[in-house]
Design brief:
The structure is a single chain. The protein has strands spanning about 5-10, 20, 40-45. By secondary structure, the chain is mainly β. The protein has one domain (about 5-55). The chain has a 3-stranded antiparallel β-sheet, with no helix packed on it. The chain is elongated. It starts with 6 loop residues before the first strand and ends in a 27-residue tail after the last strand.
Length: about 70
């Protein structure tokens, strides 16, 4: 089973990635978030170099991600 701690996200492909947690996180905010430009999100999975590790087991995994839009 792949733990949530092996997953991270960023708003840039080569940006700084933050751990995905069960807590809320701000994806984007402010005037630049509403100028009609598409907002992008990138996800990264970390893998242990020990391929016999249970967290590297092949399988089908899922994790619901909820995006909530709010207006001032």
């Amino acid at each position: 089973m792949k733990p949530i701690s092996d997953l991270s996200w960023s708003t840039a492909a080569n940006g700084t990635f933050a751990a995905i947690t069960a807590s809320d996180a701000t994806f984007t905010s402010g005037a630049s978030a509403s100028n009609g430009t598409a907002a992008q999100v990138f996800f990264r999975t970390s893998w242990l170099s020990d391929f016999t590790s249970a967290s590297n087991a092949p399988g089908t995994y899922s994790l619901p991600i909820v995006f909530t839009l709010t207006a001032p």
